[in-house]
Amino acid sequence: MARRTTRRTRGGTRDQEAALVRRALEASARAYAPYSGYHVGAALLAADGQVFTGCNVENASYPLCICAERVALGTAVAAGQSAFKVMAVATGSSPPATPCGACRQVMHELGPGLKVLLCNHAGELRRTTVRALLPAAFSGGQLTRRPPAVRRRRSAS
User: 7-96+116-125: what fold?
Assistant: First the structure.
């Protein structure tokens, strides 16, 4: 009887990575992108093995659009998750596109050690990390706990 061996990566097994890529590609097909036509899907592996997916949702008022990565993270947080291992992000770009700056910041906030798989429908795959994508990230540790003293203007009487 042959024993199957699965190569482990820093965030999970190659089988888990392949499943995440597949789920991200599937999620991209559900994107609501009537304005840009740019479909993005994301699949997030939580530490307990659950997978959460997301797709981009556009709006005629562009600033109200939400990216696939943040949909997946928000869904996971709403389900009570707080520890994440790997996120696959699927786009139609070649080479596969990286997350936008806002998504990178949110990914860093919720998973600073997160491994990221960038993929597309052509089968291209690039492995990276949140730290590599956002090396000088802003973090909560940089916020002060007390607001700075506010100087009151003297009223002219």
Answer: Cytidine Deaminase; domain 2 (3.40.140)
Between the CA of residue 3 and those of 6, 19, 66, 124, 132, what are the distances in Å?
A: 10, 21, 44, 29, 36
Helix (H, G, I), strand (E, B) or coil at 67: coil
Rounded Cα gap, residues 69 and 61, in angstroms: 19
Residue type, 67: C
Nearest to 100 by CA among 143, 16, 38: 38
Please give the Cα distance from 59 to 145 (Å, whole number).
35
The C-alpha angle 98, 101, 103, rounded to 5 degrees, equals 80
Percentage of residues of the chain with pLDDT beyond 90 = 79
Active site residue 69: yes
Residue 63: Cβ-neighbour burial (10 angstroms; 0-12, 13-18, 19+): exposed
State the pTM of this model: 0.84
Catalytic residue, candidates 26, 69, 109, 124: 69
Domain boundaries, the chain: 7-96+116-125
